[in-house]
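Follow-up to my post from last week.
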Amino acid sequence: MQKYLELLKNCPLFLGVNDDELISMLGCLGARVVPFAKRQTLMEEGEQAKELGVVLSGSVQIVQVDYFGNRNILSDVETGELFGEAFACAEVQSVPISVVASEAGEILFIPYARIEAPCANACGFHRQLIHNLLKIVAAKNLLFHQKLGLLSKRTTREKLTAYLLLQAKKNKSNRFSIPFDRQELADYLGVDRSGLSSELGKMRREGVLRCRKNHFELL
Amino acid sequence: MQKYLELLKNCPLFLGVNDDELISMLGCLGARVVPFAKRQTLMEEGEQAKELGVVLSGSVQIVQVDYFGNRNILSDVETGELFGEAFACAEVQSVPISVVASEAGEILFIPYARIEAPCANACGFHRQLIHNLLKIVAAKNLLFHQKLGLLSKRTTREKLTAYLLLQAKKNKSNRFSIPFDRQELADYLGVDRSGLSSELGKMRREGVLRCRKNHFELL
DNA sequence: TAAAGTCTGTTGAATTTTCAACAAAATAGG
DNA sequence: CCTATTTTGTTGAAAATTCAACAGACTTTA
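User reply:
Got it. Predicted complex:
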């Protein structure tokens, strides 16, 4: 846990929390660190969402798989970010998604009940955490708006360029890496992988794009 | 305002608020009622989101329009529901959507700053409202997950049937009305209107569906 | 009630996507 | 360092979507 203190201090969930308090707070919250391997499932569709997860290292993806086995990647969660918080806050009985590790690492799981209810020690930070959570969940709403904007585009080309422009903006640079391989990007954009590859080839030939593996440059 | 008290008491935003308190609370919050006409824009893309809206009567749609004029309907907001709350909570400088009335009615606008900050009178309900907001925003996240599930389907037929099944489930009945005309439904599902119409015709001929105007029955 | 306007369903052609299959390139593991 | 596996790019054919155009049904309003 000690080695992640710096990360946690900068995590939006703990914004405004005194550095000294952080450790005792984590104890009060009943937080626990869980290591995981690549491809491991951290939260299964249908489960009850009692905890939220903070990615301490590695990365995870939020995925849905429909009746016919089509994978839909809803989002990618990087170090310092949260997952499952919306389901916990909404107190859903059955989460509609699975969380799968894309890179091995460690998660900090925090029982939501401990965040929500003022505890026996009358810790003062619950109010702050709830405020932070509200802002985080609201910000995720914005991300969903963005993603809906991508998926509502009609062609692979439009989806792809809109996605790449968003990434460039997010990274404040025309050169950036994406957290997906080709198949994952296709599942994220809701398009066919081969069509995506061929569209990338076309853009390369048109000279608007350079890419190698998951590193891209817009020209 | 008086005539909407019953509605507001059942509004998730005011869950747990004492009936007597409601009136004085609304005053303390600086809430104001605004009437609007059909097709009127209630919130414009690019604005700062300082207020959230509660639909008292009528209904509104959350829409995005891209560079080429393609309309994307993100959601439909009915009586008693909220809009703009996520942008207010996330304190965004520029909302990425517009809110347009689909039916004339009235809105209760509430400045978010008044909800968030404990007021001079030290009203006790701020904590409760924040909790309610958190749950509401988290629940909207779930709705977005659903919509992403729809949009990630590859064919018009799949999107349409998934949407109709969701509506049937939501209404707990195979007979239900939808809040969209054909063009709006197409813009909601991200498909071509004529293709949607023709798919509906096909389903009718297959005998799996009956529909007239915006009333549907699944067989 | 008539006229104007809007909404819906149909059509066929052009475009785009999906699907399946394969080979080259890259990666991982022993 | 070599082999097995995974990832990526390409292809062509089949399927589906989009687009534009139009006519009939339905609404609105004058």
